[in-house]
Amino acid sequence: MNTFPSNFLWGGAIAANQVEGSFNLDNKGLSTSDMLPNGILSPHQSREERTDGIKDLAIDFYHRYPEDIALFNEMGFNCLRLSIAWTRIFPNGDELEPNEAGLAYYDKIFDELAKHGMQPFVTLSHYEMPYALVENYGGWGSRELITFFERYARTVFERYKNKVKLWLTFNEINMSLHAPFTGVGLQEDASEQAIYQAIHHQLVANAKAVKLCQQIIPDGKIGNMLLGAINYPYTCNPDDVIAAMHENNKWLFFGDVQTRGQYPGYMLRYFREQGIEIAMEPADIEELASASVDFISFSYYASGCASADPKQKEVGNIIDSVPNPYLEKSQWGWLIDPKGLRILLNFLHDRYQKPLFIVENGLGARDEIDENGEIIDDYRIAYLNDHLVQAREAVLDGVDLMGFTSWGPIDLVANSTAEMSKRYGYIYVDRHDDGSGTLTRKRKKSFYWYQDVIRSNGASLKA
Q: What is the spatial distance between Cα 154 and Cα 148, in angstroms, rounded to a whole number?
């Protein structure tokens, strides 16, 4: 009882815009992420005003993928979560025919994974979309993007149906509420009305992609992906309990629509009270109702607290929250709460009664090479060990858990700040915030620890 299920998927998770580099090779178009090459900047800039940034090379996975996949294989991965850059397939997003060079590139990636017995787990849109769709259509604020996304999804499902059996639609779809340019291609000062309208279009596109995948790849599975931002009541005051309920509903809304196929009552009430009117076509309701994802996936890094007292709130890295006096923080100010993962797993399983997949979990920290040339990242090992122990507890609770892909198995460029110093990997990459470095790969202590965890299917974890 101290191991995970025999068919458990072990691996890591990466995103195209944070590892590939080569942002302008092989006819690739500019993405929204490419327009923020140094992290969160003003997206009001034009293509001509774009400056070079650390993401332009990232860690050069575009050329070094055989070496990196071999290292993943050495750790024992049987699964790698990665994303397809939409702009490698449709450079401007609205073309009628795809870019063959982009399709061929991912063929090579998937073939390399197959060579090592590693299952690809592909996200269709991971914090990026064609920037031309923002310029020419206004991002997801336009219904036309539903057609463009459907064409993109159909193209890659048809192309890779024999190579990829696990899919996700949108990465952390609920993050559009906090970072609208990243999520839906709207300006950061967009109104709630505009953001929720764009989200509606994205949810309809999600439903179309789910149905397409289930039709084209009947032996595959497609899920959604949430940022699992679970909030506890700050106190047992019923007002705080209700505040936590409201905070959790903000992100559960996405899972409810993608799983149950309809807008929940609490969201309809919120729209009424805020004067938000979502323009829908009659077919939208049927579209949402006819497409339920096969499984729920989520990222989990930290929990939060909610209080009815607005003075309690603290500005966070991305999401504001109320400090939890019972938890320690990481170097980047994120609360470390392994038991929160068990709570979240039980909560989501009880709510949706579908298989779950932890597709992101990890610790961002500043790693140092010691006098022996080694990276002793015991803090990362402790973080991941404690979270995996709680995931195992959730399995014993009866949760149907498909797998665990930690973020990110190799050091990569942070999405929000374009830092290399915020390292997550088991593999060190010699690249730094100023862009210097040789890009040499180096195994950290955690590399061998994770290797043992996978080899033992979790039995080596220390409770």
A: 10
Structural domain spans, the chain: 9-455
Question: In this prediction, what percent of the chain has a pLDDT beyond 70?
Answer: 97
Report the alpha-carbon distance of residue 287 to residue 143 in Å, rounded. Answer: 14
286 is catalytic: no
Cα distances (angstroms) measured from residue 181 to each of 133, 140, 172, 289, 406: 12, 10, 14, 28, 25
The dihedrals phi and psi of 304, each to the nearest 5 degrees, come to -145, 175
Residues 182 and 411: their CA atoms lie apart, in Å, by 21
- pLDDT at residue 315 tops 80: no
For 88, the 3-state DSSP assignment is helix
Angle at Cα 85 formed by Cα 199 and Cα 88, nearest 5°?
125
pLDDT at 312 over 90: no
- Rounded distance, CA 162 to CA 229, Å? 34
CA distances from 333 to 96, 314, 363, 364, 395 (A): 45, 11, 11, 10, 29
Does an H or E element contain 159, and which?
helix 144-160
385/15 Cα distance (integer angstroms) = 23
Q: Catalytic: which of 100, 360, 374, 419?
A: 360
Q: What is the mean pLDDT of the chain?
A: 95
pTM above 0.70, yes or no: yes
Grade residue 317 by pLDDT with cuts at 50, 70 and 90: low
Q: What topology is assigned to 9-455 in CATH?
A: TIM Barrel (3.20.20)
Closest alpha carbon to 143 in 287, 297, 296, 46: 287
Q: In terms of C-beta density within 10 A (0-12 exposed, 13-18 middle, 19 or more buried), how is residue 258 classed?
A: buried
